[in-house]
Amino acid sequence: MITHLSMEQLVALRDGDRSEPGHAEAHRHFAGCSRCQVELDRLHQRTARLRALPTLVPAGNEFPAVRQRIAVERRQRNWRTAATVGIAAAATLVFAIIGRDIVHPTRLDAEQQLQSAMSTSQQLEHQLHAWNSDQRVVDGRTAMVVIQLENQIADLDAQLVAAATLQRTARIEHELKLWRQRVGLMNALVDVHLTNASSVGL
Amino acid sequence: MDAISLPDADAVIARARLGDPVALEALYRAYATPVYNLSRRICRTTEDAEDILQETFFEVCRSIRNYRGDGSIWGWIRSVASSKALMRLRRNKYRDTDELNDDFAPTRAATPGLRMDLESALARLSETARAVVWLHDVEGYTHEEIAGQMGKTVSFSKSQLARAHTRLRSWLGEESLA
Ligand SMILES: [Zn+2]
What is the value of pTM for the model shown? Predict the structure, then answer.
């Protein structure tokens, strides 16, 4: 009784895979067996037919959903960073205010301004959060502006984290500058969301 | 599937790595269809394929900074897509253990004289066998790559491929031609 090649042996033959045990015997059998030669032809044809199947096309555009998920993730990351930075900055302030009459009586202005900028920034964050901006549909152009503003805010937050290593006097001045920039960006972000909302009649 | 061209690919990739949303969307537009096709050929439903399309590009947008440019961008995106699709198969199998051996169940093709078209025969294969035959014979993955992505051995991948072809041969009515 003749044992013909198994499908696994035929596939190995098609793919030039010589790692299978019994490869040489399979090759010898194949050379003299017309039935196995027909089977290999069929395997080739089946593979060609698989490759020729029509390309299936998605029904809708998934990219807006992708963009939305990225925005949500970035916002969550910004909130976490802002919370960390906020705590660090608040600790700096408490220390500065406690010690100011003894050590640096003239820096009251800078500290008060820093606290005011932080509080304004926080109010704007809350405004955006209450507005639920991540869940609202925005057009592509607005989404781009939002992403760019959020990127800049994330960069500022990174600088605020880095500022924690500065000496205290330099730090308060540097932080004041950064928090003021942050307030500017947050204002722009609120504007973009409100403008977009009014332009689409929300 | 390898010949997808993205005009000005290097510049688009460079901008995408900086998080430029326009460049990321350009990548989506260039590769959404092949990613969807691969996902849909491997998974059973259009919903699964749409989910994988979204998952893949979410991952691409987050991780493109890590793409080093060694190998084609399509090769990289495709490996993200196939890994998401195989992850989905594992999840579905866990959920639908009853369907594990569905390609052994009697089918229309088992009736003598009734041949299936290739689309139906492919759809009838077990999810693992279909994934292996598609990734190997159409997408050009090696058995080593498939084994690595599936967390299985090379011989598992080889036997799944042979099994897929045995079933396809039978369901396409090729046995009666012998
Ligand atoms: Zn033979």
Answer: 0.68
